[in-house]
Amino acid sequence: MTTLRFNKPFEVLTQFSDGAGRQTLADFIPVSGVYAAGRLDRDSEGLLLLTDDGPLQNRISHPLHKLRKVYWVQVDGAISDEAVERLRHGVELKDGMTSPARVSVMEAPATLWPRNPPIRTRAQIPTSWISLEISEGRNRQVRRMTAAVGFPTLRLIRYAIGPITLDGLQPGTYDEVDAQQLWNLFPTQGRGVDRRVVSAGNSHKKRDMKRRPIRKKKQ
Predict the structure, then answer these.
(1) β 153-161/45-51 pair status
(2) Which residues are catalytic, by number?
(3) How many CB atoms lie within 10 A of CB 208?
(4) Can you give the pTM of this predicted structure?
(5) pLDDT at position 188, please?
């Protein structure tokens, strides 16, 4: 089994092909049989895990497992203590309230690389950085959270997924990681089929069966 960590550059798709000619994982990772475990938007950067282990891919990407992820977020403006507290307690989005997050104001990361193209800047308006840790996986969640508290995201970098971080990995490069570090996060599940996922699927089937009217056989 092969599990990789990859530092995804800005505007690279987290897939291996694209009919529109945009950059994809195939431009950086010449390893066959691995697939992205989860997603990272094209306009976001940072850590992406890939594996050829199907059950592990499911555990990393499935929202049921609530794997914690850390993001470095550059926002527009000097973020206020009030906004940080709102993020910590959860904010209301169109698809519901977010779970509480771990949030702290930070300096620009010492290992930060230049983005191409660079973010837009305005001379009279500062920017600030926060570290934000969540375990949910809603679509564009971090960007929507910071916008909801009045500080739109300018740059978004995923720094960590569980115990795996970006440390020592330059943009556009990858290396192999010990998958056991990730399996250790799911000690009660093993490497077989996740029984909770199966049970959830079976419960849906049972509910569907209950909804179906019973048709009497013609005599």
Answers:
(1) parallel
(2) 41
(3) 9
(4) 0.84
(5) 61
